[in-house]
Write a structure and sequence with these properties.
11 helices, Ribonuclease iii, N-terminal Endonuclease Domain, Chain A, mainly alpha, RNase_III_dom, 245 residues, 3-stranded antiparallel β-sheet
Length: 245
């Protein structure tokens, strides 16, 4: 494919994503070059996507950090970090790359492609980060805003889906990990009371470990009350110097 043909495809692709005013196609071309491609073409390694990936990784983490910080004002740093880790993981970024069709533009060696490189999560994730780096640079003074708007507008549903799957990083899970590490047992949740009407109930729950109540919680469902109790238990353990996450 000729350079002009690729530029035409880039123009169409970027236009669909809201970057119709971007005209530095050389930067996007660079963002798509896997290291195997530059080796095969015998061009300098710095012409691969690695440097743009480095930049895009930083911009992405800042974008997601800000998004989570504002959306979850009551979450502690440890939980926010774990959610962010889920979002910026190779598996997630590879899905993002495929969703927008970035996989169709990645340049790699013939051998890498034979080995299924265009489907490798690590390559797709790196290309996605490099693409963000290119957006950041080509948009000059508004680069960060462009990346932020692009992430939120294109992947908001994906982000919500990831956030809804918090069972493994919620307070109950964290407390369970703590108790299992201590003596391979689970914390015990006890329903203390249920007040209010059938459709507007408030549940009170305690959580115990080794016959000692560690926390008490309230919620509109037993599950939310258990989460609140676990959160309060973790805060108690942290004050006592027994949990430092």
């Amino acid at each position: 494919m000729s350079i002009s043909d690729r530029e035409h495809l880039y123009c169409e692709f970027l236009g669909k994503l809201g970057f119709a005013d971007s005209d530095d196609f050389s930067l996007f071309e660079k963002a798509m070059r896997h290291t195997s491609y530059v080796h095969e073409m015998d061009i300098p390694l710095e012409c691969s996507y690695e440097r743009l990936e480095f930049l895009g990784d930083a911009v992405l983490k800042l974008t997601i950090s800000k998004y989570l910080y504002l959306k979850y004002p009551n979450y502690k740093e440890g939980i926010l970090s774990k959610i962010r880790g889920e979002i910026v993981a190779d598996k997630t970024l590879a899905q993002f790359a495929t969703k927008i069709g970035l996989n169709n533009f990645i340049l790699m060696s013939k051998n890498e492609r034979k080995m299924g490189g265009e489907k490798k999560q690590s390559i797709l994730a790196c290309a996605f980060e490099a693409f963000l780096g290119a957006i950041y640079l080509t948009c000059k003074d508004c680069g960060y805003t462009k990346v932020e708007d692009f992430i939120i507008s294109n992947f908001s549903c994906d982000l919500c889906e990831i956030e809804e799957n918090l069972e493994k990083i919620n307070p109950k899970q964290q407390l369970q990990e703590y108790t299992q590490e201590k003596n391979h047992t689970l914390p015990e949740y006890t329903l203390i009371s249920k007040t209010g009407s059938e459709h507007n109930s408030t549940f009170e729950v305690t959580v115990s470990f080794e016959d000692k109540i560690l926390g008490r919680g309230f919620g509109k469902s037993k599950k939310s009350a258990q989460q609140d109790a676990a959160k309060n238990a973790l805060e108690y353990l942290k004050r006592e110097g027994q949990w430092n996450q």
